[in-house]
Specification:
Elements (H helix, E strand, L loop, with lengths): L1 E3 L6 E4 L9 H12 L4 H7 L3 H29 L10 H35 L8 H23 L24 H29 L12 H32 L13 H35 L6 H14 L15 H13 L1 H16 L7 H23 L2 H7 L3 H31 L5 H27 L16 H31 L37 H4 L6 E5 L7 E5 L6 E6 L6 H18 L2 H18 L3 H13 L1
Antiparallel strand pairs: 1-5, 2-3, 4-5
């Protein structure tokens, strides 16, 4: 991205806040052609439009979600009754490790970033994301890392030490073969991708907002994604470092985690959980953002307590870094230290409670339109509060020590993550489907899907609380008869089947609606945020004219008499965007964005060769760096046409 001085800054146009442009359809057609990805196979690999990349991200993460769900179903069938022989211990270890790793690293965090990558530019009135080529590179890296993990699983070399890969179980003494190496390198793939996406979101929110969208007018969903992006930038390096030290212990002969040579096995847990507990909130905060977008629309009133909501999101992100030892109460750390983390674990419930009270106040004083997206949001209150209450129980050292590594913890984890993230995600899917596809989903199928998912989820995971209190350990591949666990496990398996049918019904609804659903107008729900001012689905340039914002809900508040509604003066035949100041969103500079290019894809291929090669020999890091450098140089080398465009921009400015 290259910028020029503002010079003759774009002029505001007066009128209604909608996707229009002075100059008519001809200019809009030129803009669409300018911002479209090229056709053909080469064009497919060269695509950099944020909506294209986001759609690929969303579809890929949903495929991984389906694979992780199949693995979960396989485990539930194995545990449906005592003494089952559907799987042996080695395969079961691989399956539960793959399930956890898929859901945490290949679905939960990436899908939240992917949805944000689609919506954030639309919600802030931008034509693209910052660094669009880097955004494409992040997708390819993520895809190749996920493919690698499932290929080795199919070759019976899948990781088997759990999604947390505790040492020494995953270390060189007990983790034979390359299983833990592939897991550790999958972490590298996904963390690089997540960090790049976080940088893209932060820069987009800070520098590409529409004029007038001050920090006090940013939609609450965008605030949630901004805080999540900052959390990723602080949390992900910890697990990337942990996995790098692990793979060096295994392949190079270092002893970071070997107590016999001066290392420390607990170092892994500290590094991993310093990332792992904030990761729960990396998944959770975007879900809160979905709820804050859906409730005002279906309550027909602005969100109650906007400032309190923003401060609560920021406080949640900040406090989430102070309770990683919450996961280590069973280790030999000082008891006085545990009390501080107990206090922090209890304290983090406060900002979430503030948000819940604001949502309830908004619903209480609004006029509810009880559609499918709102049903998923309302279910969140029941499921999350229940998961939060068990979380407060686990914050107690004495109780946590008793139920540690039992199914009580499994139940708590799923109530928090599925109730706090997956149900809001499905609500968001129904809410924004008309914007993504341009057609409405079936309300009848949507409500059937919701009730099946809600009933199936509680039937699947509530019995696990009782199993945990009865002493059933987690991560066991079978159990003897006579323990009294058979009926509850069978009930849990039946619930998992019902939950699966509910999810499949949503898939049927989506496929059917995409082809034969009712065509959606630009704003079918009557929402107030800026993405609903764009066409459904959005055009390649998002907005034919960049809007000027005058309030927190610009579509509800409209444009004051005599005030500007749009910006003009940007070139239609160049990828030119307007950057704005961080705090006040005042026009700052005109930036020239790069054209589509295959080099991000080729750079991702070269990086993949380096990462996978390093599993087998350290020399791959040296020789594998050569093609990476070559592709990066070609990526950033400015074509002659782009240099001429930049010169033309400078002359205009």
């Amino acid at each position: 991205m290259r910028t020029g001085p503002l010079g003759e800054q774009p002029d505001p146009q007066k009128g209604q806040l909608k996707d229009g442009l002075a100059g008519g359809e001809h200019v809009a057609a030129v803009l669409d052609q300018t911002w479209s990805d090229p056709p053909g196979l080469i064009g497919w690999f060269s695509a950099i439009n944020h909506k294209t990349i986001a759609r690929r991200f969303i579809v890929t993460t949903l495929v991984f979600f389906a694979l992780g769900g199949l693995l979960a179903g396989w485990m539930r069938l194995q545990l449906a009754h005592s003494g089952n022989t559907l799987m042996g211990p080695d395969l079961y270890n691989q399956v539960f490790t793959m399930h956890g790793s898929t859901m945490m690293f290949l679905f939960a965090v990436p899908v939240m970033q992917a949805v944000g990558m689609y919506l954030v530019p639309l919600m802030v009135g931008a034509r693209s994301v910052a660094f669009p080529r880097m955004n494409a590179y992040a997708y390819w890296i993520f895809l190749f890392g996920g493919i690698m993990l499932y290929v080795v699983f199919l070759l019976d070399a899948g990781p088997d030490a759990g999604w947390f890969a505790y040492v020494p179980l995953s270390g060189p003494d007990y983790g034979a073969g390359k299983r833990s190496d592939f897991w550790a390198q999958m972490i590298t793939f996904t963390e690089v991708s997540a960090l790049l996406e976080a940088v893209v979101i932060v820069c987009t929110v800070f520098k590409m907002r529409a004029p007038g969208m001050t920090l006090n007018r940013i939609p609450l969903y965008v605030w949630a994604m901004l805080v999540t992006a900052f959390m990723i930038m602080f949390a992900m390096p910890a697990v990337a470092l942990a996995s790098t030290l692990l793979i060096m212990d295994r392949l190079v002969g270092t002893h970071f985690y070997n107590p016999g040579e001066g290392g420390d096995a607990l170092l892994w847990q500290h590094l991993f959980w310093f990332f792992g507990h904030p990761e729960v909130y990396l998944i959770f905060l975007p879900g809160l953002g979905f709820i804050s977008a859906i409730i005002p629309t279906f309550a027909r009133r602005p969100m109650f307590g906007y400032t309190a909501m923003v401060l609560s999101v920021i406080a949640t992100g900040f406090l989430s870094f102070g309770l990683w030892v919450h996961h280590m109460f069973a280790t030999n750390i000082p008891e006085l230290g545990k009390t501080f983390f107990t206090a922090a674990s209890l304290l983090i419930a406060v900002p979430t409670a503030v948000q819940i009270f604001c949502w309830i106040a908004t619903l209480w004083t609004g006029k509810l339109n009880l559609k499918t997206p709102l049903l998923y949001v309302l279910s969140f209150f029941f499921i999350l509060v229940m998961g939060g209450m068990t979380g407060l129980m686990l914050a107690s050292v004495s109780l946590d020590t008793q139920v540690h590594d039992t199914y009580f913890v499994v139940a708590h984890l799923h109530y928090v993550l599925i109730g706090g993230a997956v149900f809001p995600l499905f609500g968001a899917f129904y809410y924004w489907f008309p914007k993504f596809v341009g057609r409405m989903m079936s309300e009848r199928l949507g409500q059937w899907s919701f009730w099946l998912m809600f009933a199936g989820f509680n039937l699947a995971f509530f019995p696990m609380h009782l199993l945990g209190l009865q002493g059933m350990p987690r991560r066991m591949y079978t159990y003897p008869a006579g323990m009294g666990w058979d009926n509850l496990n069978l009930l849990s398996t039946i619930g998992a089947i019902v939950l699966t049918f509910g999810i499949l019904l949503t898939l049927v609804n989506a496929v059917r609606s995409a082809h034969a659903g009712e065509r959606a107008p630009a704003d079918p729900w009557g929402a107030g945020t800026l993405e609903w001012a764009a066409a459904s689905p959005p055009r390649p340039c998002n907005f034919a004219a960049i809007p000027v914002v005058h309030g927190r809900d610009p579509l509800w508040q409209g444009v004051p008499a005599g005030a500007a509604s749009h910006v003009s003066g940007l070139a239609a035949d160049l990828r030119e965007v307007l950057t704005t100041t961080v705090a006040e969103a005042k026009p700052d500079a005109r930036a020239m964005f790069p054209d589509p290019s295959p080099w991000p894809f080729l750079a991702a291929v070269a990086t993949t060769v380096l990462f996978i090669g390093s599993i087998f020999t350290p020399w791959a890091v040296v020789w594998g760096a050569v093609p990476v450098v070559i592709t990066l140089v070609a990526w950033f080398w400015p074509p002659q046409r782009e240099a001429a465009e930049e010169l033309a921009l400078e002359k205009v400015a």
